[in-house]
């Protein structure tokens, strides 16, 4: 094809001195907005470095993380439930709202091993989990011990730790639902797991 | 090139001393400053078609969040709810891998289209061009007048009248930018939620507030000043096109065979080009298309319409500047079927086939089987036990019932959990245990089984293969033998 007419020579265009493989390079000025962006980032890095590292205006990463963790744990505590005493847990075990929420969680997760009746092996001998309605307990029958069993699990026997999955409140609700099947003054016996 | 122009062109429309050259960018002065362009008005068929298509595209952009499909906006990327609605088709976060086909498909489609038609995307569909040419430039034209008037206004000293026009123009720019960014946010939060945001304190949704206003600021400065710089310097596509196009690719070009040697009307032995410079005056990126294909060209076709109008006036055939390939402009033949288009087209087809298959595997529910925390398996006196959790993620916008079943189990396996179908609320998720036990006497080592999820509403089944883990069967045999248990 016929090439278009050559454009007019522009005397304002400078060439770099080198020629590589026959390729010549223009030496034109970059757009000012581009240069200013570059200078801006350099300036920003200096200011950033000064503010963060030298002057310490902004707290260090470690301090910020510590502050955030403190805030998170404070928020957790604010929304958590006091499970430090048996009497508090008994109180929850008599609270209809807690029991109802606990029943929902129990029926979606715990029933696979402990059965909807909560009677486990007592109802069906081949069930995986033990009976939670009788007074014989394998890992302790006080409310605090039951809470620990549900929260931390009994990993060797296949009872998973539920607190990391459910969170503190839902775990407490499940314990409340279990306690709703028990009396405060009932006699507790410790029993070996029948393997 | 002659510095003389046709007498019908008003002198103020020219930019003296700033004729486009191919060796440097017109819009960047030798000292690096920005040379603002005042593209002249243009009339013609491509201008009209481009206006229609842009108005359709802008309407689609503005209306999609308002159109409900199955109770959700037509396109609703609900990041907070982790559900993504596309015209009644809902995806969850777990389906994000499909994005691969969106991105690669866009890439291959662009390759294919560019090999065939050059930069049609830039001129006809790119948001930069669509918003600039059909929202911001019309505002400017309306407030400040045509190109000579705008050039005169820019050169005039600041007076109350000029100040008033500038304020009016920039206010409208800012309003347009805010509308565009607010609608953009609506794609992620929905219109009612956006309406709520607008009525509450900025601090209540400070991240969204900052996003919308920073984005609006960027759009405003881009469309008010930056304009063609984005296409020329920032956008990589203009640079890529030289690798994607060839001599058979449709581009906008000048027929030098017919046009040269250019000369004013009445010049003996002159070509068709009367050197009126209209093609340069209307160019939004400040090039002279008669120098050939250049990376600044966004394929807006303004020069085609400008040249055709002049050719009609001087009773010469139109098409001196036209959509054609470099070969076609050189008098040769444009071949549409050539290795490049065949390979790009084949790859695009392969990608489309793979994407179709991938989308066909997407079902209204996602499910995942994983082991409960603790040991991988438990060996009891009677049986070996594996404990799993099954996570169901419903993408239905109505309540849905799902059945979870295990299959391909060896004899002697019992299952607890998922005895009954699971009903999930719209878009809800559930996690439930699935426990499998196998009698010691039936246990012959680890095995694989399948978990199936199906729905009663419509016929689909999802299958996962899961491994039942356990000890070497001989260990259990020995243990039972030692204890004297009969197997």
Features:
heterodimer; A: about 200 residues; mainly alpha; Cytochrome Bc1 Complex, Chain D, domain 2; 2 domains; two-stranded antiparallel ribbon; two-stranded parallel sheet; 4 strands; B: about 475 residues; alpha+beta; Immunoglobulin-like; five-stranded antiparallel beta sheet; 16 strands; elongated; disordered N terminus
Concise account of the structure shown:
Chain A is mainly alpha-helical and 195 residues long. Chain A contains eight helices and four strands, in the order E-E-H-H-H-H-H-E-H-H-H-E.
What share of the residues of chain B does DSSP label as strand, in percent?
Answer: 15-25%
Oligomer: heterodimer
Structural class of chain A: mainly alpha
**Residue-averaged pLDDT of chain B:** 89
Describe the protein's topology.
The complex is a heterodimer of chains A (195) and B (487).
Chain A: E1 15-20, E2 23-26, H1 32-54, H2 61-79, H3 86-92, H4 96-114, H5 120-123, E3 136-137, H6 143-152, H7 163-166, H8 168-179, E4 189-190
Parallel strand pairs in A: 3-4
Antiparallel strand pairs in A: 1-2
Chain B: H1 45-63, E1 68-69, E2 72-73, E3 75-78, E4 83-86, E5 89-92, H2 99-117, H3 120-125, H4 127-144, H5 147-155, H6 160-189, H7 191-199, H8 206-226, H9 228-234, H10 236-244, E6 251-254, H11 256-259, H12 278-281, H13 302-313, E7 321-324, H14 326-329, H15 339-360, E8 365-371, E9 378-379, E10 383-394, E11 400-407, E12 413-416, E13 422-424, E14 429-439, E15 447-455, E16 461-468, H16 473-483
Antiparallel strand pairs in B: 1-2, 3-4, 4-5, 6-7, 8-10, 9-10, 10-14, 11-13, 11-15, 12-14, 15-16
């Amino acid at each position: 094809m016929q090439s278009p007419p050559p454009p007019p020579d522009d005397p304002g265009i400078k060439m770099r001195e080198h020629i590589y493989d026959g390729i010549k390079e223009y030496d034109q000025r970059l757009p000012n907005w581009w240069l200013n962006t570059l200078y801006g980032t350099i300036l920003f890095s200096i200011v950033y470095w000064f503010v963060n590292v030298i002057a310490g205006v902004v707290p260090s990463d470690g301090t910020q993380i510590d502050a955030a963790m403190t805030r998170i744990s404070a928020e957790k505590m604010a929304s958590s439930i006091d499970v430090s005493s048996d009497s508090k847990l008994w109180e929850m075990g008599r609270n209809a709202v807690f029991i109802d929420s606990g029943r929902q969680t129990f029926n979606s997760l715990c029933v696979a091993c402990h059965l909807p009746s909560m009677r486990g092996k007592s109802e069906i001998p081949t069930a995986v989990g033990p009976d939670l309605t009788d007074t014989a307990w394998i890992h302790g029958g006080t409310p605090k011990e039951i809470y620990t069993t549900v929260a931390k699990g009994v990993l060797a026997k296949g009872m998973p730790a539920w607190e990391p999955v459910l969170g503190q409140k839902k775990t407490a609700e499940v314990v409340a639902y279990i306690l709703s099947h028990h009396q405060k003054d009932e006699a507790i016996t410790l029993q070996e797991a029948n393997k | 090139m002659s510095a003389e122009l046709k007498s019908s062109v008003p002198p103020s429309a020219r930019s003296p001393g700033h004729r486009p050259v191919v060796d440097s960018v017109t819009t960047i002065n030798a000292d690096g400053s920005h040379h603002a362009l005042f593209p002249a008005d243009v009339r013609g068929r491509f201008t009209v078609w481009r206006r229609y298509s842009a108005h359709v595209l802008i309407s689609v952009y503005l209306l999609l969040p308002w159109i409900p499909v199955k109770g959700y906006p037509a396109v609703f990327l609900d990041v907070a709810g982790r559900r993504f609605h596309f015209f009644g088709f809902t995806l969850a976060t777990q389906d994000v891998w499909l994005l691969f086909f969106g991105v690669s498909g866009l890439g291959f489609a662009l390759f294919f289209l560019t090999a065939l038609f050059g930069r049609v995307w830039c001129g006809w569909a790119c948001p930069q061009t669509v918003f600039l040419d059909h929202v911001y430039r019309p505002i400017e034209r309306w407030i400040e007048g045509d190109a000579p008037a705008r050039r005169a206004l820019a050169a005039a000293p600041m007076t109350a009248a000029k100040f008033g026009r500038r304020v009016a123009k920039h206010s409208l720019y800012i309003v347009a930018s805010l509308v565009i960014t607010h609608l953009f946010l609506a794609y992620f939060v929905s219109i009612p939620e956006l309406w709520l945001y607008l009525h509450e304190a900025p601090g209540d949704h400070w991240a969204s507030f900052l996003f919308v206003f920073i984005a609006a600021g960027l759009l405003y400065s881009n469309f008010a000043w930056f304009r063609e710089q984005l296409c020329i310097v920032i956008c990589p596509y203009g640079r890529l096109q030289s690798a994607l196009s060839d001599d058979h690719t449709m581009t906008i070009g000048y027929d030098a065979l017919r046009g040269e040697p250019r000369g004013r009307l009445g010049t003996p032995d002159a070509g068709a080009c009367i050197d009126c410079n209209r093609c340069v005056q209307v160019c939004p990126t400040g090039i002279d298309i008669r120098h050939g294909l250049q990376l600044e060209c966004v394929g807006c076709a303004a020069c085609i319409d400008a040249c055709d109008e002049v050719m009609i006036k001087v009773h010469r055939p139109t098409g001196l500047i036209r959509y054609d390939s470099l070969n076609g402009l050189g008098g040769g033949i444009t071949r549409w079927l050539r290795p490049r288009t065949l390979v790009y087209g084949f790859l695009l087809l392969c990608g489309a086939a793979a994407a179709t298959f991938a989308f066909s595997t997407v079902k209204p529910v996602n499910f995942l089987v994983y082991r409960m925390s603790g040991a991988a398996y438990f060996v009891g006196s009677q049986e070996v036990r594996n404990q799993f959790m099954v996570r169901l993620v419903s993408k239905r916008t109505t309540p849905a019932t799902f059945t979870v079943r295990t299959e391909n189990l060896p004899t002697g396996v019992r299952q607890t959990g998922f005895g009954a179908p699971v009903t999930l609320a719209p878009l809800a998720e559930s996690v439930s245990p699935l426990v499998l036990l196998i009698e010691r006497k039936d246990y012959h080592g680890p095995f694989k089984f399948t978990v199936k999820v199906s729905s009663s509403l419509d016929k689909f089944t999802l299958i996962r293969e899961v491994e039942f883990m356990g000890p070497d069967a001989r260990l259990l045999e020995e243990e039972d033998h030692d204890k004297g248990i009969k197997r």
